[in-house]
Design brief:
- 49% of the residues are buried.
- The radius of gyration is 21 Å and the shape is globular.
- The longest helix has 17 residues, at 222-238.
- It has 16 helices and eleven strands.
- The protein has two domains: 1-311, Rossmann fold (3-Layer(aba) Sandwich); 315-360, no CATH class.
- By secondary structure, the chain is α/β, with parallel strands linked by helices.
- The strands form two sheets. The chain has a six-stranded mixed β-sheet with strand order 4-3-5-6-11-10, sandwiched between helices. A five-stranded parallel β-sheet has the order 2-1-7-8-9.
Amino acid sequence: MKHIDEYRDAKIARALLAALERKVTRPWVLMEICGGQTHTLMRYGIDTLIPSQIELVHGPGCPVCVTPLEVVEKAIQIASQPDVIFVSYGDMLRVPGSATDLLRVKASGGDVRIAYSPMEAVKIARANPQRRVVFFGIGFETTAPANAMAVMQAKREGLRNFSMLVSHVLVPPAIRLLLESPANRVQGFIAPGHVCTVMGYWEYEALSRQYRVPIVVGGFEPVDLIEAIGMLVAQLEEGRAEAENQYVRSVTLVGNRVAQKVLLEVFEVTDRKWRGIGAIPQSGFRLRPEFAEYDAEKIFGLADTVVEEPAECISAQVLQGLKKPVDCPAFGVRCTPENPLGAPMVSSEGACAAYYQYRRDTVKSS
């Protein structure tokens, strides 16, 4: 693998930008799916360096942002119980529910802990047999194999006090939904590199063919993204629509077969609701019936409820590339990382958080 500095080399970036300038002859709207890519684009000002004919919009690739409000409410209910140790990635603690969040539950005495791996939750369950330990299993295909391994390990050890609140979602069905929307403006996609490292990009080939849209798997460094944009523009200018791979140092067509095998042993595909978007058929994972004893929703008997999003929050339009965070009247005023109205302002991969950190000066004074 090449040194990371090569993917941040200003000379290489300038050469790619110059080549891109020569390619563009008309306006194009491109969407990066992954929130990590959004932050790189904003941090390095790539959106301001590319030709003005190219508009970048931001997709639903932030796992924290698309976790449904109803699932956040279930997490809060579980974490508030006195015999529970609730384990989660740190970003989820500040995602607002309808009345509170996990951080406030922790401040009020709930045993809410931050972990960097689901195996930490298994370790906690092993060390606390008298307590019920619940891991908040969110994310895209990237994190699903590790979560599957945690469930498999708990079953192997017979840990009956461990369970998982699952809210996994899949990228290709979301792209399909966006492409079928009458409001869609996107003409080319930068597919998420981490997801494709696990799953490969063969599914994107079918999407490209069906919808006649270019899709390029992209990495996360500045040179990666400028090159991916150039590959998309080349296809669009030439009238091609193919799935291509810019992120060749990490991604193959078929992906990581071992990780996929573990994932599909524990999870099965199901319909999922996405925060701000709604239900998308066959767009998520749930635990298979043989692992039902580790399903926190079943263990705690949590009924499905409908919770309304804050009326002022436009995260739904942001996640679909219809608006930018700075289009929101509440941005940076009534919605900040300290007091967020929606998840995209909280997450380290959220578009609103990226704009708050790197683009606050673009907000028009009222």
